[in-house]
Amino acid sequence: MVVMRRYTPFSVAIIILLLFIMGSGSVYSESIDRKVNDMLSQMSLEEKIGQMFVVEVSTVMERRGPFGTSGRIDTRKLKGLTNVGSIFSGGSLRANPVPNNPATWTEMINNIKQVFNDNSRIPVIYALDAIHGNNKVIGAPISPHNLGLASTWNPELVERVYGYTSDSLEAIGVSWNYAPVLDVARDPRWGRTYETFGEDPFLVSVMGAASVRGIQKSGRVCATAKHYIGYSGSENGMDRDPSYIPKRELYEVYYPPFKKAVAEGVKTIMVNSGEVNGIPVHVSKWLLNDLLRMELGFSGVIISDYADISKLHDYHMVAKDYEEAIIRAVNAGVDMFMEPDNYPGFYRFLIEAVKEGTVSEERINQSVSRILKLKMELGLFNEELKDPANAEKIISNNSEAVELFRQAARESIVLLQNKDNVLPLSREIKSVLVVGNCAESMGNLCGGWTINWQGPEETDLTTGKTILEAIKEKVAPGTRVDYIKYRLESIDIYVKKVLEAASDAEAIIVAIGEEPYAEMMGDVQNIQLPADQIKLIKALGNTGKPVITVLITGRPLAVGPILNSTPGLLLSFLPGTEGGNAVADVLFGDYNPSGKLPITIPKYTGQLPLYYNHKPGVDYDPQFPFGYGLSYTSFEYSGLTVKKQHDSLQISVDVKNIGDVGGTEVVQVYINDVYSSVTTPVRELKDFKKVYLRPGETRRVEFVIPFTKLTLYNENFVEVVEPGTFEIQIAGFSRRVKI
Ligand code: BGC
């Protein structure tokens, strides 16, 4: 029997409206595609090829000395470059306006856009690396670096942090953020460890997707998932050194964050500067085309990393000259070339290559269509110039942004040790002694990629407080705060002075850690805490006074030698300009620490690589494991239950705050596929939730794990769920279930 439904005119109208709304996305993208094709058909080959280049702003600035610039645009030079697709500010100072503030950034970018508007029918897209706040602009608040953000285990917060950063980029006229970094950190000797969300593919994927959502939330700024793929897997942990990554590891570890970012709609992807299995990624058809385009379905713009096309010739030696380098990279699938200085030569080569037939015009059309589409989607064809006063308002002294970054910094702090409940300190404490190289430094709180590539001058940071200032502000009026300024010259003299001052102190706060660095300049051979810092803390430990160490670092450092000398140990992965306040909030109990490690802290350099989600048989013996972090209260878990549904597992557990202060716990769900056709990690994070509990409060925390999260890549590299027993682990408890 056929049942006929009767529709009233009103319901018909609603249905038509719904169909229109549902269809409008594709109508919209069809009309963009049509516009792109129209435009492409009117462009000369020279015009098209110009779009494929990304040039550094320093190229069009007045020169100062052999490498520097005056920070001012040279309009004559700029007019000669208005056929390029994009201009960017790289990390170094020579790409910043002088003076540097939100208004001058806006004026500089307005100026560039105006010259493009007057000389080209295609607008320019301005790009920079805002990887922890709008970090090139003096006056902008700086957020924790990604490793700190990952320690919050709070993706909503991360989305808001990147969301604010995106607003502040838009305010100065930047529509392209070369962020987030989606490399999975496997070796802390690597100088870019702090730029990552840690060692776990799932956590990196979740945080990466949150960042992409934040950056792209308005539709007027696009994100860049970088550095595709395997960049963090170099053989010896050194930046840009070769990596040998078996296909299995590539799929299991390095691929998931990019897969998730593509699913999230990331508009651009930046290529790994290094080689993977003997082939520089910039010329790997397998990685760029087969995996990224065909398998992942990425349809956005692929951009090369800084000067990497030249390096195919003079570093990797896979091209006999620059001409061959550029031909190979275009044919492998790179759409845009970040060639800060080599633009004119490369541009001519590529035109010749198309004329000679070594690169097809069809291949050029593919890339240029993607670039035009990106520009249309971001609204650049009818964009207004930005108002410098508005940029000042959004960036300088923005109390909401400062509060957001302070919250991120607080949630990122990990309490590693709290013997005899030495923390939190009372505000009424009679006297504290503050020492160490990070106590009075804003630069060390922010790290690399802050104003300048290798880190800022102290005077560049005009917002926030140092740890020392924040402590002074936090304590009661009657408390004495002594400070012994750190001297690098002679640790023995410093220790002597500190010990003299220590005799009067009721507690000693030692703020130590790394000085700023970026990329290869940050590579180290040894992750041991420096000998001077160990000496200082051991000497203080011998005084018998309570010693609290605040470690500010961009990577896990082996802290074993100090653990007996410092009952309190807080770790903060480069917390940014609000780091001082956040540290003081935690030290004095205004914020109960809830951060958890997104990366393992090894005992020795010789253990590397060491990560929690290893295959069976590995001796995982860290100083502090992945997921670890204490609180000023304790949590008790009970009643773990697992129910199998049609296509998911329903997991629930009771979590109780058994202490006498409120606190936040990160409930972490790990799964082990007990017997499988290929080996699988002994435990893998599959979900987590952050819950606040009042003293004495119990909450039933529930998770739904779809079976699609239980997949593995089988012998033929097909992603499948294999029927069998799975073990669910939460906080040391486990249950087994058959699927
Ligand atoms: C880095 C990239 C960055 C680029 C532009 C390179 O050195 O590897 O991550 O986006 O510079 O600043």
From TrEMBL:
Catalytic reaction equation(s): Hydrolysis of terminal, non-reducing beta-D-glucosyl residues with release of beta-D-glucose
Gene3D superfamilies on file: Glycoside hydrolase family 3 C-terminal domain, Glycoside hydrolase, family 3, N-terminal domain, Immunoglobulins
GO molecular function: beta-glucosidase activity
GO BP terms in the entry: glucan catabolic process
InterPro entries recorded: Cellulose_Degrad_GH3, Fn3-like, GH, Glyco_hydro_3_C, Glyco_hydro_3_C_sf, Glyco_hydro_3_N, Glyco_hydro_3_N_sf, Ig-like_fold
Domain Fibronectin type III-like stretches: 665-734
Keywords assigned: Glycosidase, Hydrolase, Signal
EC number: 3.2.1.21
Top-level taxon of the source organism: Bacteria
Entry similarity comment: Belongs to the glycosyl hydrolase 3 family.
Name of the protein this chain belongs to: beta-glucosidase
